[in-house]
Amino acid sequence: MLSRWLNDTTIQLAKGMDDWQQALAYCARPLLETGVITPDYLEAIQEQHRQLGPYFVLAPGLAMPHARPEEGALATGLALLKLEHGVVFGSAEHDPVDLIILLAAADNHSHIDALAALAELFSNAADLARLHSASSREEIKAIIAGY
Amino acid sequence: MMKIMAVCGSGLGSSFMVEMNIKKILKKMAIEAEVEHADLASATADAADLFVMAKDIAASASVPEDKLVIIDNIIDINELEARLRAYFS
């Protein structure tokens, strides 16, 4: 299921980033290039972060940035960025973040399958730990193939 | 029936994950409730009997404290279960 959205194009790895905004932009590039989201979507995420703080940092080292469908999501999609050195999102308890999964939802329903699969993955502590220590796209693909 | 609302900033990502976990836990605890997810703006005091949200947005919420369960880690189902059990006990 997850491999429908997370593939050779949308899974990226990098050493480090200057800040979380740069990491977000890097992570989002495949979705921007394929027209899944518009630049507005990233702006909306940053605005939400300014207003509410890093609510999309879910757990230690893990962020799932997302905004609302009408804020620039044209289709449902996911993009994953694995950093060797995590970045700070301003989350006192969960920084630094080395695993970023950008979620785009075109409406309130179509992303449910993607989220359900992600929730299953996140609740498997062993596989989540493997993701955090992954150092290649192949490794990441092998882990998510089970979801 | 009791209504539980999982809340996050946008009302479609993290809150949906929390909703799924709440449903799993309630089933285990044999408690029947209506569970839904919403954004922070929709989480007004009368919208539900119980609200579940992460610490970072709880400060901005307009929900009475006795109707609020705050979690540190959104994907940690064990923490959520402990907090729900504490609420229901």
Q: How would you characterize this protein structure?
A:
The complex is a heterodimer of chains A (147) and B (89). By secondary structure, chain A is α/β, with parallel strands linked by helices. Chain A is 37% helix and 19% strand. Chain A has helices spanning 20-33, 39-52, 112-122, 125-132, 137-144; strands at residues 11-14, 57-59, 62-63, 77-87, 97-104. Chain A has a five-stranded mixed β-sheet with strand order 1-4-5-3-2, with helices on both faces. Chain A is globular and about 35 Å long. In chain A, 48% of the residues are buried. The mean pLDDT of chain A is 94. Chain B is α/β, with parallel strands linked by helices. Helices cover 36% and strands 24% of the residues of chain B. Chain B contains three helices and four strands. In chain B, helix 2 (55-58) links the parallel strand 3 (50-54) and strand 4 (68-71). The longest helix of chain B has 16 residues, at 14-29. The radius of gyration of chain B is 11 Å and the shape is globular. The mean pLDDT of chain B is 93. Chain A binds chain B through residues 48, 52-60, 62, 64, 66-69, 91, 93-94, 103, 105, 108, 111-112, 115-116, 118-119, 122-123, and chain B through 8-14, 16-17, 20-21, 39-40, 54-57, 60, 72-77.
What is the gist of this entry?
The complex is a heterodimer of chains A (147) and B (89). By secondary structure, chain A is of the alpha/beta class.
